[in-house]
Write the structure tokens for this entry.
Amino acid sequence: MQRTMRTLLSAAGLVVLAAALAWAAQVMSVQVRAGQLRDKPGFLSKVVGELEYGDQVDLTGEQGDWRQVKSLGDGRAGWMHFSALTEREIVLNPTDKDVAAAADSDELALAGKGFNKQVEDQYKRQTRLDYAKVDEMEKIVVPQKYIREFLRVGELGGDR
């Protein structure tokens, strides 16, 4: 009876160990043009770094929709929203240098998701919307300190 119990406990321990190793070794890729690393899990928390499209990270934690990651390239660590990551490895081969030279990082990120200039042009022809203002708005970057101040002054809970 004791031998059976020890065998069961050993088996359970191996399962827990295997699960922990699988979690610790989970590598993901950044699937957005510029993935912001934050000090805490939240869109309004301080940005502590930025990773580029295709950079690989090791998943070290999880809280809701946020993943705690560590860059495999330079070791920077922080929190990223799950939507900025994919389990799929994104590789730009050395033979892709010509493509990289001809495409900016926005186009590379969109191509990784199945979009390209032809798809965008076709969609624009099928709709009557003018995207010029959208294109202008996408270029606006509001620094995090201004967003936090806006939330603080408006008492909107920006301390998260």
